[in-house]
Amino acid sequence: WYDAAIREAIEEIGIDGDMIDLERALRFSDDHGDWRYETIIAHALDHFAIGESNHETVEATWVEMEKVELLPLHASFAKAWPSIKALIESSQ
């Protein structure tokens, strides 16, 4: 499942998949029955950068964790954010 998620990130925001450490990666699954999304929490290696996005991505940017909830998030992601944030904090 990591391969599919990383492939999507490479396609949608142009990241270099070799710059991600997946050994300690975690997955958060938000399942809504007829649809779900996966959030992958992985550690970036030195010199990690966001590349060019494709037609599926409006914007990709770095945001401090404390400021995520201030953004206009998708309703489902906003609801899941406290659990995702806790998972991120536990992986550090």
Keywords:
2 helices, 23% strand, alpha+beta, 2 strands, 32% helix, 92 residues, two-stranded antiparallel ribbon
Summarize the structure.
The chain is of the alpha+beta class and 92 residues long. 32% of the residues lie in helices and 23% in strands. A hairpin with a 4-residue loop joins strand 1 and strand 2 (36-44).
Note the topology.
Elements: H1 2-13, E1 20-31, E2 36-44, H2 75-91
Antiparallel strand pairs: 1-2
Structure report:
With 92 residues, the chain is of the alpha+beta class. It is built from 2 helices and 2 strands. The protein has a two-stranded antiparallel sheet. A hairpin with a 4-residue loop joins strand 1 and strand 2. The two termini are 22 Å apart.
Widest sheet, order of strands? 1-2
User: Fraction of residues in helices?
Assistant: 25-40%
Count of helices? Answer: 2
How many strand segments? 2
On the 0 to 100 scale, the average pLDDT is 85
Gross morphology is: globular
Measured by DSSP, the beta-strand proportion falls in 15-25%
Amino-to-carboxy terminus distance? 22 Å
The topology string of helices and strands comes to HEEH
Class per helix and strand makeup? alpha+beta
- Low-pLDDT segments: none
Global Rg: 13 Å
| Main sheet summary | 2 strands, antiparallel
